[in-house]
Amino acid sequence: MTDTQKSIILVGCGNMGRAMLESWVACECVKPENIHVVEPAEALRNKLTTFGVSIYSSADALPEGLKPVLFIMAVKPQVMFDVAPDYQKYVDGGAAVLSIAAGIGTKRFENAYGASTAVVRVMPNTPAAVAKGMMVIYTNEFVTEQQSALVEELMQANGAFATIDDEALMDAVTAVSGSGPAYVFHVIEAMIEAGIAAGLPDETAKLLAEQTVYGAACYAKESGVDAKTLREQVTSPNGTTAAALAVLMKDDALKNLMRDAVAASKKRSEELG
Ligand SMILES: NC(=O)C1=CN([C@@H]2O[C@H](COP(=O)(O)OP(=O)(O)OC[C@H]3O[C@@H](n4cnc5c(N)ncnc54)[C@H](OP(=O)(O)O)[C@@H]3O)[C@@H](O)[C@H]2O)C=CC1
Ligand SMILES: O=C(O)[C@@H]1CCC=N1
Predict the structure, then answer these.
(1) CATH code of residue 248
(2) 187 lies in the same domain as 98
(3) Residue 68 and which of 53, 136, 198, 243 are 20 to 30 A apart at CA?
(4) What is the value of ipTM here, to two decimals?
(5) Rounded-to-integer distance, Cα 147 and Cα 98, Å
(6) Is the pTM of this model over 0.90?
(7) Domain that holds residue 244
(8) Under a CB-based contact definition with an 8 Å cutoff, are residues 177 and 123 in contact?
(9) Helices (H), the chain
């Protein structure tokens, strides 16, 4: 089997499933028609027609004899084990299950599908849609080299990936990089509103906020300089930034808020498991 003959099934093409799919259709590890997408919502299926992927409304509609290398469970944690039995036959045929659900551990899939099931957990994030995701991978001992290699190719198409050996870290991962884009989007919202309140036209406030967050993130990642030093380089003594940071850093306000937010997300991930 050549690489491009490999097939995968994506179960659920909502916010996160679609974000990952957007970068997969451009990657050369799986041909678009060999990406089988199962999504019950007609409106979401209709948005996939230009992707060249194979689209189904339910597991029953998948073609007979399909032998996927892996299937990706991108449904909500709350419905995961209602949906899981529909894919038992692919596990029995040697496929690995890849779950992106918050909280749910590999053991629960082993319990559902069988003790030696190959299970991959990935905590993705939505910037995967523009190949700028942070994808964190944990695999159990039953995942084969071929399955692992395909997972890494797919995750690379989505942006950067990291692997962890300790599954217990997944809740903290979820709280930082899984949920994290929402924190940053909220910062962008807040900067836009503040810019408008300071007198900027709406479109100008949006452009400035988005490009500033984008540029700062690229600079932090690409310069090799730590964030504290980069912050200090912006901050002229008794200048404008110092005036702003006196507000943001008073009593470690933002750090404390972020610590509480990440702790709340981690706790919720543990509860979902
Ligand atoms: N959103 C994010 O940023 C992130 C999400 N995740 C995880 O990704 C998973 C999906 O989240 P998200 O994309 O936000 O959720 P969505 O609700 O947007 O997407 C889930 C999709 O699965 C569909 N679905 C429900 N039942 C089935 C079924 N039997 N077969 C196939 N598809 C089905 C849903 O359809 P319908 O609505 O009609 O039920 C929906 O379109 C969750 O487990 C979440 O924890 C992880 C990291 C980040
Ligand atoms: O909010 C959630 O539960 C999912 C998991 C991480 C990001 N979104």
Answers:
(1) 1.10.3730.10
(2) no
(3) 136
(4) 0.99
(5) 10
(6) yes
(7) 180-272
(8) yes
(9) 15-24, 42-46, 80-83, 88-92, 106-113, 145-158, 170-173, 180-197, 202-222, 227-234, 240-248, 253-272
Same domain, 131 and 187: no
CA distances from 1 to 5, 30, 34, 155, 204 (A): 6, 12, 13, 21, 52
Binding-site residues, ligand 1, Cβ < 6 A: 11-12, 14-17, 38-41, 44, 74-77, 79, 83, 100-102, 123-126, 178
Q: How far apart are CA 244 and CA 24, in angstroms?
A: 41
Is residue 71 domain-resident?
yes
Which alpha helices (H) appear in 35-179, and where do they start and end?
Answer: 42-46, 80-83, 88-92, 106-113, 145-158, 170-173
Count of other CB atoms within 10 angstroms of residue 199: 8
Number of domains in the chain: 2
Q: What is the pLDDT of residues 118-167, one digit of tens each?
A: 999 999 999 999 999 999 999 999 999 999 999 999 999 999 999 999 99
Using DSSP bridges, classify how beta strands 54-56 and 70-73 pair: parallel, antiparallel or unpaired.
unpaired
Angle at 60 between CA 59 and CA 64, to 5 degrees: 100
